[in-house]
Amino acid sequence: MTISTMTVLTLQVTNVTKRYGSGSTEVTAVRDVSLSVAPGEVVLIMGPSGSGKTTLLSMLGALLKPSEGEIQLNGDVISALAENHLPDIRLRQFGFIFQDFNLLSALTALENVAIVAELAGLKNGTARKKATALLTSLGLEERLNFLPEKLSGGEKQRVAIARALVNDPTLILADEPTANLDSKIGHEIMRLLRGIAKEQGRSVVIVSHDQRIKDIADRVLWLEDGQFKEMVEMATDPVCGMKIEKEKAISTEWDGQFYYFCARGCRDEFTKDPVWCSRVGKWRVTFTGTFPQTPLR
């Protein structure tokens, strides 16, 4: 997604670093990261465990202060605000979606959403009406009075999405939102979230290990050793077995699947007997972080 210089950015992160400890025990969790997110844009941040993803997401959500750098939300520098100003900003301008749903077990689906609106100042009746409308729009009109223990994983995550949306935030932050869902339900939930982002102009930043949800994102970024690095998409030539970069490869489609080749000779060999070639060489895609990425503005 190309960001116009005229676009008012939801999120602007500039040269952010986060360090823990000092002296010989100092650890840099995030190093000189820059990122811009436009209204309605969905950004997926991937990377190995310990790469700094959770630390970065916590800083984006004003849960942690950066050691260096600046974070702007809708043009306001939130990284410089005093701690006593941050709870209200988190309540009204952010929507959080968690891996474990974090629903209150003693409250119904409706109450889990309405209570967040009440905390933002809505009266009980208005909050419940708004929560009901949101849950109904997410297909949960028959589950309004169910406790979390009576809901499926996908239903719990839809309640969590409604809770994240109830105060009309401009930025939604999701931490491993598909980790406790099967692949089909997880993908459905992410497509639902993408639809909401596009229809309502809300920005979404997702942190995940789940490569199956890449297609819902406008951009996929790779975070490794606390830095954004270039993500190279690779394929295996089904004829010769060579690893090749997809962007530089010759491709052809067969039986609804794209196959990638190192040269025309391999492609021509494949077209002679695609059934045999596709069985011998199973097409795979892997991702590797190799080169530091130019900071995104």
Briefly characterize the structure.
The chain has 297 residues and is of the alpha/beta class.
What would your notes on this structure say?
This protein is of the alpha/beta class and 297 residues long. It folds into 2 domains: 11-217, 3-Layer(aba) Sandwich (Rossmann fold); 234-288, no CATH class. The chain has 8 helices and 14 strands. It has helices spanning 53-60, 86-93, 109-119, 124-137, 153-165, 183-200, 264-272, 274-280; strands at residues 11-20, 27-37, 42-46, 68-73, 76-77, 94-97, 171-175, 203-207, 219-224, 227-236, 243-245, 250-254, 257-261, 285-292. The longest helix has 18 residues, at 183-200. The radius of gyration is 22 Å and the shape is globular. The chain starts with 10 loop residues before the first strand and ends in a 5-residue tail after the last strand.
Helix-strand blueprint:
Blueprint (H helix, E strand, L loop, with lengths): L10 E10 L6 E11 L4 E5 L6 H8 L7 E6 L2 E2 L8 H8 E4 L11 H11 L4 H14 L15 H13 L5 E5 L7 H18 L2 E5 L11 E6 L2 E10 L6 E3 L4 E5 L2 E5 L2 H9 L1 H7 L4 E8 L5
Parallel strand pairs: 3-8, 3-9, 6-7, 7-8
Antiparallel strand pairs: 1-2, 1-4, 4-5, 9-10, 10-11, 10-14, 12-13
Helix pairs in contact: 3-4, 3-5, 5-6, 7-8
Figure out the total of helices: 8
Anisotropy-based shape: globular
Highest CATH level, the class of the largest domain: Alpha Beta
Low-confidence stretches: 1-5, 282-297
Assembly annotation:
single chain
User: What is the element string, with H for helices and E for strands?
Assistant: EEEHEEHEHHHEHEEEEEEHHE
- What average pLDDT do the residues reach? 88
Termini separation comes to 12 Å
The CATH H-level homologous superfamily of the largest domain: P-loop containing nucleotide triphosphate hydrolases
Rg from C-alpha positions?
A: 22 Å
